[in-house]
Specification:
Radius of gyration: 15 Å
Shape: elongated
Number of domains: 1
Number of helices: 4
Structural class: mainly alpha
């Protein structure tokens, strides 16, 4: 995901268009599926989206995804 987004951003920059870090992060959060809504809300209220690098945002997503996966596995093992 990050690679594809970087390619798009580089293409926009080569055309002379600029996209703020806030726009990048805000649009990334907007496209998340519904099961990520709690994480999206937490990030919007607790982090500075203008200053957060995309790599940090993706790192947060990766950790959250691992937690969800772990929880789903544990729930299925206890049934």
């Amino acid at each position: 995901m990050v690679f594809h987004l970087q390619v798009i951003l580089n293409s926009l920059r080569s055309l002379g268009l600029t996209v703020s870090q806030y726009e990048i992060n805000n649009n990334t959060l907007r496209i998340l599926p519904a099961k990520w809504r709690a994480q999206e809300t937490t990030l919007r209220t607790s982090k500075d989206l203008e200053a957060m690098p995309l790599e940090e945002l993706v790192g947060i997503f990766t950790v959250y995804e691992q937690v969800i996966h772990y929880d789903e596995n544990n729930a299925s093992n206890h049934v």
